[in-house]
Amino acid sequence: EAGVVQSPRYKIIEKKQPVAFWCNPISGHNTLYWYRQNLGQGPELLIRYENEEAVDDSQLPKDRFSAERLKGVDSTLKIQPAELGDSAVYLCASSSEGNDEQFFGPGTRLTVL
Amino acid sequence: KNQVEQSPQSLIILEGKNCTLQCNYTVSPFSNLRWYKQDTGRGPVSLTIMTFSENTKSNGRYTATLDADTKQSSLHITASQLSDSASYICVVSAEVGNTGKLIFGQGTTLQVKP
Known about the structure:
The complex is a heterodimer of chains A (113) and B (114).
Chain A: E1 5-7, E2 10-13, E3 19-24, E4 31-37, E5 44-50, E6 53-56, E7 65-68, E8 75-79, E9 88-95, E10 103-104, E11 108-112
Parallel strand pairs in A: 2-11
Antiparallel strand pairs in A: 1-3, 3-8, 4-5, 4-9, 5-6, 7-8, 9-10, 9-11
Chain B: E1 3-7, E2 10-14, E3 19-26, E4 32-38, E5 45-51, E6 56-59, E7 62-67, E8 72-77, E9 86-93, E10 102-104, E11 108-113
Parallel strand pairs in B: 2-11
Antiparallel strand pairs in B: 1-3, 3-8, 4-5, 4-9, 6-7, 7-8, 9-10, 9-11
């Protein structure tokens, strides 16, 4: 069974440019999470989806970050415009209903120059 | 405030040696505690999970302990191997039952040298 898939794995952009990350969760997992992980730190939750509904986006910087999960399966996280401080690894995770064990993707490493 | 603190921040040991990583938490209501291993450039992978009533859980050479009274956990690695070099993250679930909001520690970076 395939795990959580993320793309791209690496992205280098200049500040003020837009960027988007894609995540395909494990088949059948209705809960999807986006995390940001700074170097030497644990992941920090940005947004959590239950199917297509964002149920926790309290930590998402809404002035520049947006996310969508239109059909309740794969999801896209966008940053526009990117800032230097956005350089981090963006992790996607998924879990099945009634089970809080999360399975993580490999992450997208973003570098903003 | 829900927090998870890990120590040490980093650790270097020789191959074959044992080590113990620490995790202290102030999370309520407590649901469970997990230890994750995160290899460089990869996402975290769950090693062990313990609920309130469990005080020890093993997964191969990894043994986790939990003291719910003192809100402390440890991860003991026996006979370390080079492949154990990774970041180890303590994660506490703050919700009971349904998909939980996880509180992550900052991780301990372990380097195993030959």
